[in-house]
């Protein structure tokens, strides 16, 4: 493809426009992702200089980071191969899946970066080096080179009359100078001293920022935006280079950062849209985003008061007719069609109904129905304005015109509700009877009846049994009866639908449902997900019991099912339709039958691994993961050629390493006598002349006691106080209230970003003056057990909440924080908030007055009261009462109940 920057610019603009149009229905835009302040990569927090641009670039798919540890490494220098990848994605270039021929002497057809190198080379975005004799994918990219890449790729033209100054422009190579000046004119690259530093290497974070700022320029120009100006504290004018109107470009098209809201938009000139905003903060900079994408336009907030009329709600009223209330109010100062929220709150402060309505002709109206008798308040909100009106429903008046039985399924359990509606309202039997109505249930069997709570006992029924019921409601004069309703009874522990199936060899699930055609063991289909009749996910133990009844294959020449066995015939893909015993609907499963496994790549290709070297040599081994042609872990034990070259390109050693359980391990101390010296190396991995990829290794000289940062390691930072089925080492069961929940906390350290050995951390801590302590910000949540080892501690969960654990150095009156971690303690134990004695039951205390003899006589909000839940009981024989103190784990409440000894 010939290089044509303008055509690529059209592609970019088209892509952005399509994304914007979709954003009306999609969840996020790149700017919304950045504004959300939720970091995608663990090493790019919201405080990072490049955070917003990295987030935006990640949302666009321009960057992906390192999957092994979910990092982006923004401070690492970007290499040419990575730059080619980012440019290809940014320009939406056609990147081939495979490359048929070698591109450069150092970029073979199987090279990791070969597809993107081919794409950017053919597009003319990047070229080879040294007379186009090599590409140097691992070479750092300079700032001046990036300037030329961006200007060429995005067809950026000089701005006539620009006063942008680049003080060190003479330090740049002549071919790049004009492009550097163009970037400065568009403010894509800028520094406080106007120095560009053309020879400096570009970091990964800087590259993301350069590209995102370029997108801002492209979007601003292609949208025809010219300027944005604050007229007063609540008015902003946005000028375009073409005629616009507020019918096509509404307020929803405009957003600003720093919590400035756009309330309205109107056309005030042929090419100007005037925005009404919330109050601007004087001297605060606001950047305009248009149609979901950031622009280069910004303005400084005005302190001059505008003429914005405040929203006011007047004459709020509630018109009550029977069980219906119509809420009305006059609204001034709000835009036409502005949203009003009306909430109906009962006497207990609970919201029972709510609705959003539009302001029309400076008024709102909202109708609510189905109220029970009682006092209510209608709360009206429009913008910042609020109003309320009280009303009362004095009686439940129903015309008794229609009724419907609505329950179609119940469980094989006690306490099942058979529900109904009358005149469109879902009311309980108790509510209707309290209002003076009589309710009667009719069943298909005269032996069926409801209990005193109005619930049906289905515990004696079997899975897939049925009953029928109808409900009759009367006020003494008028009677309405529902139609007969058939009800299916289901066991909640029985699967009625398989939601997902997968391929297995034995107990091992095959990744991506790829089945090897030549495997010695049988490949089977098993259910991995199922739901009951109520749509609830079933436990793994139940799902595992499901058995295959039949399998039909869409391509029988790839795979077929015969004699209760899945036969893999040829390589290819097919869709299996799998039926399971006792399940009506089949589930589909797309599988791929693959050929013999081939060693194809290493997962860490292109990454940089850092190590420290001390007096004993290099600490740690270089470990990479071998992948097959399908991206899965290589399962063979082949040998791999390993070549290590230094920064000057000199070969240090060529060796072999055996793949063990998918990993290639290179001992950096054995490759040369005494191990590798400090420096930068390239480690290339090949197998049968196939390049698997390369890794950059940086080795840093390290004093054995030198640690420049500390951090905590804790396996679980969310602890639960409620632990069931705990046992002592002797196998005795521990009651949940007696379990002490602990977690190990380890102090680790690093030097120049590389983790060092534990004994080094210990020595470094011992060398620090003063005392080393681990503290908890809330001892009621988490306590720390001291240890003789200054790097190993035990965290003890005390109560629900969150606490920050901090490693501190205490020197007299000075305290220095070295590391911290946040630990959350939860309590999933059932909380006892209600406790009574069951009707027709008598609570009995043992002769000693120390325990309840018949706990089953207790009724509570939790399913079952156990002895473990009770901390203490105090029996008063004179009062015939027992005071029951619930253990803190279960809520810690105190209840006084009638009882006998």
Notes on the structure:
With 901 residues, this protein is mainly β. The chain has 8 domains: 5-222, no CATH class; 225-300, Sandwich (Immunoglobulin-like), CATH 2.60.40; 312-393, Immunoglobulins (Immunoglobulin-like), CATH 2.60.40.10; 403-478, no CATH class; 497-594, Immunoglobulin-like (Sandwich), CATH 2.60.40; 599-701, Immunoglobulin-like, CATH 2.60.40; 709-826, Immunoglobulin-like (Sandwich), CATH 2.60.40; 835-898, no CATH class. The chain is 13% helix and 38% strand. A 6-stranded mixed beta sheet has the order 33-32-39-38-35-36, with no helix packed on it. Strands 16, 18, 19, 20 and 21 form a 5-stranded mixed beta sheet that branches. The protein is globular and about 100 Å long. The termini are far apart.
How are the secondary structure elements laid out?
Elements: H1 5-23, H2 30-35, H3 51-60, H4 80-90, H5 114-123, H6 143-154, H7 174-185, H8 204-222, E1 225-232, E2 235-240, E3 254-256, E4 262-269, E5 272-277, E6 285-290, E7 293-300, E8 312-321, E9 324-332, E10 339-346, E11 351-358, E12 363-368, E13 374-382, E14 385-393, E15 403-405, E16 409-411, E17 420-422, H9 429-434, E18 438-443, E19 465-474, E20 479-481, E21 485-490, E22 497-505, E23 508-509, E24 514-516, E25 523-531, H10 540-544, E26 548-553, E27 559-562, E28 565-568, E29 572-580, E30 587-594, E31 599-602, E32 608-614, E33 617-618, E34 622-628, E35 639-646, E36 651-658, E37 663-666, E38 679-687, E39 690-701, E40 709-714, E41 718-720, E42 726-727, E43 733-734, E44 742-751, E45 754-755, H11 758-767, E46 771-776, E47 782-785, E48 792-797, E49 801-811, E50 814-826, E51 835-837, E52 858-860, E53 870-876, E54 881-886, E55 894-898
Parallel strand pairs: 16-21, 24-30, 32-39, 41-50
Antiparallel strand pairs: 1-2, 2-5, 3-6, 4-5, 6-7, 8-9, 9-12, 10-11, 10-13, 13-14, 15-17, 18-19, 19-20, 19-21, 22-23, 22-25, 26-29, 27-28, 29-30, 31-34, 32-33, 34-37, 35-36, 35-38, 38-39, 40-44, 42-43, 44-45, 44-48, 46-49, 47-48, 49-50, 51-52, 53-54, 54-55
């Amino acid at each position: 493809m010939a290089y044509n920057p303008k055509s690529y610019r059209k592609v970019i603009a088209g892509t952005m426009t399509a994304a914007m149009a979709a954003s009306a229905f999609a969840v996020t835009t790149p700017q919304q992702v950045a504004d959300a302040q939720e970091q995608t990569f663990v090493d790019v927090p919201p405080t990072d200089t490049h955070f917003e641009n990295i987030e935006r670039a990640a949302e666009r798919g321009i960057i992906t980071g390192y999957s092994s540890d979910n990092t982006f490494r923004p401070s690492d220098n970007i290499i040419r191969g990575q730059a080619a990848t980012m440019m290809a994605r940014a320009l939406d270039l056609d990147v081939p899946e495979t490359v048929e021929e070698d591109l450069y002497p150092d970029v073979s057809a199987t090279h990791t970066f070969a597809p993107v190198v081919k794409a950017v080379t053919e597009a003319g975005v990047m070229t080879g080096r040294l007379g186009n004799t090599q590409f140097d994918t691992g070479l750092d990219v300079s700032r001046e080179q990036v300037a030329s890449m961006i200007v060429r790729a995005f067809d950026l033209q000089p701005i006539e009359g620009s006063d942008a100054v680049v003080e060190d422009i003479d330090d740049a190579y002549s071919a790049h100078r004009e492009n550097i000046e163009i970037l400065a004119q568009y403010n894509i690259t800028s520094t406080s001293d106007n120095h560009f530093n053309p020879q400096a290497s570009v970091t990964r974070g800087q590259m993301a920022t350069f590209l995102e700022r370029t997108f801002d320029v492209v979007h601003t120009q292609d949208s025809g935006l010219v300027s944005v100006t604050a007229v007063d504290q609540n008015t902003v004018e946005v000028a375009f280079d073409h005629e616009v109107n507020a019918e096509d470009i509404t307020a929803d098209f405009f957003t600003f950062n720093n919590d400035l809201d756009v309330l309205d938009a109107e056309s005030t000139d042929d090419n100007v849209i005037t925005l009404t905003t919330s109050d601007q903060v004087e001297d605060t900079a606001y950047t305009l985003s248009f149609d979901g994408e950031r622009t280069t336009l910004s303005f400084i907030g005005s302190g001059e008061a505008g003429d914005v009329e405040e929203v006011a709600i007047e004459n709020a009223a509630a018109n009550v007719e029977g069980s219906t209330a119509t809420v009305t109010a006059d609204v001034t100062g709000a835009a036409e069609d502005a949203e009003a929220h009306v909430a109906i709150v009962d006497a207990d402060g609970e919201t029972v109904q709510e609705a959003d309505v539009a302001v029309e002709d400076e008024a709102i109206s909202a109708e609510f129905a189905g109220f029970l008798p009682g006092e209510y308040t209608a709360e009206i909100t429009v913008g910042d304005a609020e109003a309320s009106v009280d009303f009362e429903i004095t009686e439940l008046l129903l015309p008794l015109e229609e009724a419907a039985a609505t329950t179609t399924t119940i469980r094989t359990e006690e306490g099942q509700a058979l529900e109904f509606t009358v005149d469109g309202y879902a009311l309980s039997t108790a509510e209707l009877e309290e209002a003076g109505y009589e309710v009667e249930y009719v069943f298909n069997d005269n032996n069926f009846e409801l209990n005193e709570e109005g619930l049906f006992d289905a515990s004696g029924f079997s899975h897939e049994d049925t009953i029928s019921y109808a409900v009759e409601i009367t006020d003494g004069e008028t009677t309405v009866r529902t139609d007969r309703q058939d009800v299916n009874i289901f066991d909640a522990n029985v699967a009625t639908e398989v939601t997902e199936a997968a391929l297995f060899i034995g107990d091992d699930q095959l990744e991506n449902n790829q089945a090897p055609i030549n495997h010695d063991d049988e490949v089977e289909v098993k259910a991995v997900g199922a739901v009951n009749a109520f749509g609830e996910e079933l436990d793994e133990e139940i799902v595992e019991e499901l058995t295959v009844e039949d399998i039909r294959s869409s391509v029988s020449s790839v795979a077929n099912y015969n004699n209760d066995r899945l036969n893999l015939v040829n390589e290819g893909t097919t869709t299996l339709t799998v039926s399971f015993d006792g399940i009506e609907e089949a589930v589909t499963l797309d599988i791929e039958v693959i050929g013999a496994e081939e060693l194809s790549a290493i997962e860490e290709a292109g990454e940089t691994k850092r190590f420290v070297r001390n007096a004993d040599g290099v600490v740690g081994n270089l470990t990479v993961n071998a992948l097959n042609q399908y991206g899965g872990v290589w399962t063979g034990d082949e040998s791999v050629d390993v070549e290590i070259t230094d920064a000057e390109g000199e070969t240090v050693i060529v060796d072999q390493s055996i793949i063990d359980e998918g990993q290639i391990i290179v001992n950096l101390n054995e490759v040369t006598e005494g191990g590798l010296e400090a420096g930068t190396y390239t480690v290339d991995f090949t197998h049968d002349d196939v390049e698997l990829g390369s890794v950059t290794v940086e080795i840093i000289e390290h004093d054995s006691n030198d640690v420049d940062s500390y951090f905590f390691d804790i396996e679980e930072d969310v602890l639960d106080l409620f632990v069931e089925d705990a046992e002592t080492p002797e196998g005795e069961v521990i009651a949940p209230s007696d379990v002490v929940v602990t977690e190990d906390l380890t102090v680790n350290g690093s030097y120049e970003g590389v983790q060092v050995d534990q004994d080094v951390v210990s020595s470094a801590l011992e060398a620090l003056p003063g005392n080393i302590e681990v503290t908890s910000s809330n001892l009621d949540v988490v306590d720390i057990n001291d240890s003789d080892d200054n790097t190993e501690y035990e965290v003890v969960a005390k109560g629900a909440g969150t606490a920050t654990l901090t490693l501190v150095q205490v020197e007299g009156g000075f305290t220095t924080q070295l590391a911290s971690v946040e630990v959350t303690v939860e309590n999933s134990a059932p909380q006892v908030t209600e406790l009574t004695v069951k009707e027709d039951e008598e609570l009995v205390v043992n002769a000693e007055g120390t325990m309840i003899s018949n706990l089953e006589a207790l009724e509570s909000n939790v399913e079952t009261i156990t002895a473990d839940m009770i901390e203490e009981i105090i029996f008063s024989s004179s009062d015939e009462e027992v005071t029951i103190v619930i253990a803190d784990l279960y809520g810690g409440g105190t209840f006084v109940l009638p009882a006998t000894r």
